């Protein structure tokens, strides 16, 4: 499942911080209780990959999130 893949990947990125609208997003499992950061330009493309229970909010792009999805699409889909 995409969430599990993201969580596995995220655990390897512990030294990185996700920053959106000036706030740090909590890392680890809690990220899915917060926001899914997706740029408007890619949201249509990525939306089908994100489980419906995860909120999809168009905010400033989060390059780590986008990087993850770009690579997941190439390697898992």
TrEMBL record:
Q: Which EC class is the enzyme in?
A: transferase
**A Pfam family recorded for this sequence:** Acetate_kinase
For this UniProt record, the keywords arranged alphabetically read as follows: Acyltransferase, ATP-binding, Kinase, Nucleotide-binding, Transferase
Q: Which InterPro entries match?
A: Aliphatic_acid_kin_short-chain, ATPase_NBD
Which E.C. number(s) belong to this protein? 2.3.1.129
Please report the name of this protein according to its UniProt entry: Acetate kinase (AckA)-like protein
**A molecular function (GO) term:** acyl-[acyl-carrier-protein]-UDP-N-acetylglucosamine O-acyltransferase activity
Source taxon at top rank: Bacteria
